[in-house]
Amino acid sequence: MPTKWVKILAFERDKEIVVHISDSGNGINRSIVDRLFDPFFTTKPAGRGTGLGLSIVKGILDDHKATIELRRDEPFTCFEIRFSEHAAVKNVV
Ligand SMILES: Nc1ncnc2c1ncn2[C@@H]1O[C@H](COP(=O)(O)OP(=O)(O)O)[C@@H](O)[C@H]1O
Ligand SMILES: [Mg+2]
Q1: Residue of the CA atom closest to atom 2 of ligand 1
Q2: What is the arithmetic mean of pLDDT over 17-24?
Q3: What is the number of the ligand closest to the CA of 49?
Q4: Residue 54 CA, ligand 2 centroid: distance in Å
Q5: Predicted pLDDT at 75
Q6: CA of 50 to the centre of ligand 1 (A)
Q7: pTM, entire model
Q8: d(CA 71, CA 58)
Q9: CA pseudo-torsion sign 69, 10, 51, 56
Q10: Residue 60 placed within a domain
């Protein structure tokens, strides 16, 4: 079985904090990229997927004035999260 991996990279670019999260999966078909963040959108079989993962992530990031998008120029699935200089920081305790 091929090695599976997830990579998380964080760096600063143009006064933003950028986080790249990529994985060794099969990538994402272009035909679904516009629906990825829709609540309850899933390509997994019934009982396996809820379609809530990305929608909840986006909701949390919206609260922090951050953005998330799929990077389309990568060979693997790669999501880019960007926190602006003015991103809201909330206590999470
Ligand atoms: N890392 C990924 N690699 C490939 N497809 C993904 C990835 N993350 C999300 N997707 C696609 O987006 C859909 C929605 O994802 P998500 O909101 O996390 O819900 P779920 O994982 O329950 O299906 C998934 O069903 C899948 O088609
Ligand atoms: Mg998921």
Answers
A1: 77
A2: 97
A3: 1
A4: 6
A5: 85
A6: 9
A7: 0.91
A8: 15
A9: negative
A10: yes
38-93 tens-digit pLDDT: 999 999 999 999 999 999 999 999 999 999 999 988 889 999 999 997 766 666 55
Q: What pLDDT score does 57 carry?
A: 98
Q: How far apart are CA 29 and CA 8, in angstroms?
A: 22
* Residue 37 covered by a domain: yes
Cα–Cα distance for residue pair 28/57, rounded to 1 Å:
17
Distance of CA 49 to the CA centre of its chain: 16
Domain count, the chain: 1
Residues at CB less than 6 angstroms from ligand 1: 23, 25, 28, 32, 36, 41-44, 49-55, 77
- Among protein residues, the one whose CA lies closest to atom 20 of ligand 1: 51
Domain containing residue 51: 29-80
How many Å is the Cα radius of gyration of the chain?
15
String of DSSP letters for 39-65: TT---SPTTT--S-HHHHHHHHHHHTT
More confident residue, 34 or 89: 34
